[in-house]
């Protein structure tokens, strides 16, 4: 979709990357590490100073104590952390249960491991995870529950009752819980991010995946981490050894600087993202989309039924050509693309200027909505 945005001169609200740089202290630390640092293979599990910083951060924010020596591994982004965890712990025919809609890397990783993705369909616009739905998805073959909070694409932040339901289900069936928390710092309206590993009884069965990507606006750095019980983290590290072997050293040093930033950095980021969310939600609503304000993360999953949309992929293409705004068709996040055929995902991790331009362009859409419905206006994307 980023290529489509470039081709059509659109504002790119598709892919989830910020259009600003990481904070200055991280850039300075990265430059210094490149000029004066060590350029050879870092340890497989990551630089000890970054593992200590991740451990301190988890203790401070989530009350989770992890030993940086044995219970943290640094990975090439959350993507490698999730994939290595799934490859390490899911065997041929094992089922992995996760809510739907989902981040599209999950079924791919489960399938690569020879596992079977089993989803818990959630109903929009609230996308609440309930215990009955979870229980219905679990079978004797289930090995793992995979969660993402704050969520891409729904913007949901799991609540304590939802996490308690996960904890009961996981304990009843002795399941591993893998949690993708890459948006952990991006929670809005005074909400708190609750880490499933901190729920009583969950620590011994939970692997938590984090990343510098979203917290420090550095999606291209690919520095992430996995924490949890030593035995599970050891299994992840053994697979990581044969994927990337090690994660880029100078950038690990820079992420230490990031995790040591004052609390005001994280609060300011949250505030700025909350404002951007509100700007985009107001614009989408005025343009005729039905929108539930995201509780966290980077994205709004907007319902375009009111605009006559029944094929989001077709509409996204039309929107790029005629509205000059790029969004991702909702079908991407469902097992059957038809389930998301009325949905589009818009990213708000963009500058105010980009969002204002997008909103101004979207404001004209109601007037040309009839044109979308007319087949003559369709055609190939330039
Ligand atoms: C839910 C979720 N998990 C993981 C990732 C990837 O993180 P990383 O860039 O650290 O691999 C993304 C990126 O968009 C994401 O949205």
UniProtKB/TrEMBL annotation:
<dbReference type="InterPro" id="IPR015422">
    <property type="entry name" value="PyrdxlP-dep_Trfase_small"/>
</dbReference>
<protein>
    <submittedName>
        <fullName>Aminotransferase class I/II-fold pyridoxal phosphate-dependent enzyme</fullName>
    </submittedName>
</protein>
<dbReference type="InterPro" id="IPR015424">
    <property type="entry name" value="PyrdxlP-dep_Trfase"/>
</dbReference>
<keyword id="KW-0032">Aminotransferase</keyword>
<dbReference type="InterPro" id="IPR004839">
    <property type="entry name" value="Aminotransferase_I/II_large"/>
</dbReference>
<keyword id="KW-0808">Transferase</keyword>
<dbReference type="GO" id="GO:0008483">
    <property type="term" value="F:transaminase activity"/>
</dbReference>
<dbReference type="Pfam" id="PF00155">
    <property type="entry name" value="Aminotran_1_2"/>
</dbReference>
<feature type="domain" description="Aminotransferase class I/classII large">
    <location>
        <begin position="11"/>
        <end position="362"/>
    </location>
</feature>
<keyword id="KW-0663">Pyridoxal phosphate</keyword>
<dbReference type="InterPro" id="IPR015421">
    <property type="entry name" value="PyrdxlP-dep_Trfase_major"/>
</dbReference>
<dbReference type="InterPro" id="IPR051326">
    <property type="entry name" value="Kynurenine-oxoglutarate_AT"/>
</dbReference>
């Amino acid at each position: 979709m980023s290529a489509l945005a470039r081709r059509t001169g659109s504002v790119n609200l598709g892919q989830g990357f910020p259009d600003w740089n990481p904070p200055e202290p991280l850039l300075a630390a990265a430059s210094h590490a490149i000029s004066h640092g060590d350029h050879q293979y870092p340890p497989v599990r990551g630089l000890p100073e970054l593992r200590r910083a991740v451990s301190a951060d988890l203790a401070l924010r989530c009350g989770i104590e992890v030993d940086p020596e044995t219970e943290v591994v640094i990975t090439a982004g959350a993507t490698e952390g999730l994939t290595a965890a799934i490859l390490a712990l899911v065997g041929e025919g094992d089922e992995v249960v996760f809510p739907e809609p989902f981040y599209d890397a999950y079924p791919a990783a489960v399938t690569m491991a020879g596992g079977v993705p089993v989803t818990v369909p959630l109903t929009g616009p609230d996308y609440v995870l309930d215990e009955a739905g979870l229980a219905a998805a679990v079978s004797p073959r289930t090995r793992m529950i995979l969660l993402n909070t704050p969520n891409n694409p729904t913007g949901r932040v799991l609540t304590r009752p939802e996490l308690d339901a996960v904890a009961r289900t996981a304990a009843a069936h002795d399941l591993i819980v893998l949690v993708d928390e890459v948006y952990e710092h991006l929670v809005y309206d005074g909400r708190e991010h609750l880490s499933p590993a901190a729920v009583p009884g969950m620590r011994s069965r939970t692997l938590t995946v984090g990343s510098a990507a979203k917290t420090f606006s550095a999606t291209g750095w690919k520095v992430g981490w996995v924490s949890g019980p030593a035995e599970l983290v050891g299994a992840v590290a053994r697979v990581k050894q044969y994927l990337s072997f090690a994660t880029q050293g100078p950038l690990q040093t820079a992420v230490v600087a990031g995790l040591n930033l004052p609390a005001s950095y994280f609060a300011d980021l949250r505030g700025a993202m909350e404002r951007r969310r509100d700007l985009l939600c107001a614009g989408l609503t005025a343009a005729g989309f039905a929108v539930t304000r995201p509780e966290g993360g980077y994205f709004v999953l907007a319902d375009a039924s009111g605009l006559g949309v029944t094929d989001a992929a077709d509409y996204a293409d039309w929107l790029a050509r005629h509205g000059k705004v790029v969004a991702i068709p909702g079908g991407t996040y469902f097992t059957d693309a038809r389930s998301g055929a009325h949905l589009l995902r818009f990213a708000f991790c963009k500058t105010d200027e980009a969002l204002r331009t997008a909103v101004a362009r979207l404001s004209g859409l109601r007037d040309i909505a009839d044109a979308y419905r007319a087949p003559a206006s369709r055609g190939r994307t330039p």
